[in-house]
Write a structure and sequence with these properties.
four-stranded mixed beta sheet; 7 helices; 11% strand; rod-shaped; 196 residues; 4 strands; 60s Ribosomal Protein L30, Chain: A; alpha+beta
Length: 196
C-alpha cells in the first residue's frame, strides 16, 4: 500500500503539470488565419470561369433619366403646339373665351403627358394685344392673357414651373390693318417651346 500511495502522490503532482503543459500546447497549436493578400495574386493571375459568369450576369448600371426630351419627342411637342394654335380674346379682356378653351383643350392633355416626364423642358406662353391703348396698359393686358392660359394648362396638370409667361403687349402684330378683323387676330396668346 505504501507504493501505491507514493504513486498516487506522484501521479497527483504530475497530472496538474501535464494539464498545464497541454493547455499551452493547444494555444500554440492553433495557427493564425491566412492573410488575404496571399490569395489575391492567384485570383488575378488566373481568373476563374465563375467570376466571368458573374460579371456577365450583372445588369449594366441604369442610365440616368433624361431631363430633356430627345429629338423625336421634341418634334411631337412641336406638332402638338402647332395644332393648339393661338387662343384669341375679346377686346380689353383676359378671360379665356369658349373657343380659346377649345383650342387649348384639344391637345393639352397629351402635351402634359409628355412635358411632365422632362422637368427641364419649358414652354413659353406669349400674350399679345391689338394696337389700341397705351404700351404700358397693353403690356399688363398681354401678361394677364398669358397668365390665364398658364392657369388653364396648370389646371390640366402641366407643372407651373415648366411654363414661362411673357407679354409683348402691342408689339409683334400679326396683322397691321386698322379694323376689327385685324385687331382680333392680334388679341391672342401663343405657346412655344423655349430655346435650350
Amino acid at each position: 500500500m505504501k507504493i501505491s500511495r507514493e504513486l498516487l502522490w506522484v501521479a497527483a503532482a504530475i497530472v496538474p503539470l501535464l494539464a498545464a503543459g497541454c493547455s499551452k500546447k493547444v494555444a500554440k497549436a492553433t495557427p493564425p488565419p491566412p492573410a488575404p493578400a496571399a490569395s489575391t495574386p492567384t485570383a488575378r493571375s488566373t481568373p476563374s470561369t465563375p467570376a466571368r459568369q458573374t460579371a456577365r450576369n450583372t445588369p449594366p448600371p441604369a442610365s440616368p433619366i433624361s431631363r430633356t426630351p430627345d429629338a423625336k419627342t421634341r418634334a411631337r411637342i412641336d406638332e402638338l403646339l402647332a395644332r393648339i394654335q393661338d387662343a384669341y380674346f375679346d377686346y380689353d379682356k383676359h378671360e379665356l373665351r369658349p373657343d380659346a378653351l377649345k383650342t387649348l383643350e384639344s391637345d393639352s392633355k397629351e402635351l402634359r403627358d409628355i412635358i411632365v416626364q422632362y422637368p427641364n423642358y419649358k414652354l413659353t406662353i406669349e400674350g399679345y394685344c391689338d394696337e389700341r391703348g397705351s404700351a404700358e396698359y397693353n403690356m399688363a393686358l398681354g401678361d394677364a392673357r398669358a397668365k390665364a392660359a398658364k392657369d388653364y394648362l396648370v389646371g390640366v396638370g402641366i407643372p407651373g414651373d415648366q411654363l414661362k409667361v411673357v407679354s409683348y403687349g402691342k408689339e409683334k402684330q400679326v396683322c397691321d390693318e386698322h379694323n376689327e378683323t385685324c385687331w382680333q387676330k392680334n388679341r391672342r396668346i401663343h405657346i412655344l417651346a423655349m430655346a435650350e
